[in-house]
Amino acid sequence: MAPLRPEARFFLLEDQFARGPQHYIRHNWGRVDPQDLKSWRFGEKCTNYLESPEAMERIASMCPDVRIIFVLRNPVIRAWSN
């Protein structure tokens, strides 16, 4: 489920999103048969999606039935671990 490169930022970056879904899949998961796309489940991590209305709109436009999971951490513990 994880992409080849973490934090793809596809939905965040205009130039990446403009290349379309085939580019997103090929660039982040390698070669995929387009017939298989409907049965695929994708996962990636990008903390910036949470704070970007544009990214959320792009995700909704490309994946209207998407289920998004955000795992939030205690900010103090997160800062300490960093």
Major sheet characteristics: none
Segments where pLDDT lies below 50 for 5+ residues? none
Strand content of the residues, in percent?
under 5%
Structural class by helix and strand composition: mainly alpha
Number of strands: 0
Output mean pLDDT.
81
Radius of gyration: 14 Å
Question: What form results from the Cα inertia axes?
Answer: globular
Element order: H for helix, E for strand: HHHH
Q: What share of residues is helical?
A: 25-40%
Task: Give your account of this protein's structure.
- With 82 residues, this protein is mainly α.
- Helix content is 37%, strand content 0%.
- The protein has 4 helices and no strands.
Name a few traits of the molecule.
mainly alpha, 82 residues
Set out the fold topology:
Layout: H1 14-17, H2 21-29, H3 53-62, H4 75-81
Please sum up the structure shown.
The protein has 82 residues and is mainly alpha-helical. 37% of the residues lie in helices and 0% in strands.
